[in-house]
């Protein structure tokens, strides 16, 4: 009789664990779609950050145009993947562009907006501040 209970326990435990996992997995919220490889955008922003940190804001402003062009060209492919994340990056992009294109840009503001842009490129689900 003990052997029957042992067999039932040895069969029931894995079945219960598997069933519980399946129920959890099927009811877990779906993850948002990934925007894909953003490394080319990050590389350009890193270049812009490097130029800005050296105080060469005119060169940084010129280089961020490369980012803007690439971002705009990729919009039709990237935006449908996750419109919310795309909007987070786009808002941070606009802030960085605006900061660099002021008639007399503030180095602090430029560096802060570029840091915020890089942060949101690294984690698009997190809106920039």
From TrEMBL:
Signal sequence, start to end: 1-25
Source taxon at top rank: Bacteria
Keywords noted in UniProt: Signal
Name this polypeptide is given: Histidine kinase
Organism, scientific name: Rhizobium chutanense
Lineage, uppermost ranks: Bacteria, Pseudomonadati, Pseudomonadota, Alphaproteobacteria, Hyphomicrobiales
């Amino acid at each position: 009789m003990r052997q029957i209970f042992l067999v039932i326990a040895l069969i029931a435990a894995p079945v219960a664990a598997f069933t519980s996992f399946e129920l959890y997995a099927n009811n877990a919220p779906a993850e948002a779609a990934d925007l894909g490889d953003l490394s080319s955008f990050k590389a350009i922003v890193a270049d812009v950050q490097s130029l800005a940190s050296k105080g060469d804001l005119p060169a940084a402003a010129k280089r961020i145009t490369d980012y803007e062009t690439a971002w705009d060209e990729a919009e039709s492919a990237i935006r449908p993947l996750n419109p919310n994340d795309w909007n987070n990056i786009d808002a941070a992009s606009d802030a960085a562009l605006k900061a660099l294109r002021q008639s007399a840009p503030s180095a602090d503001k430029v560096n802060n907006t570029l840091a915020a842009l890089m942060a949101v490129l690294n984690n698009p689900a997190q809106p920039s501040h």
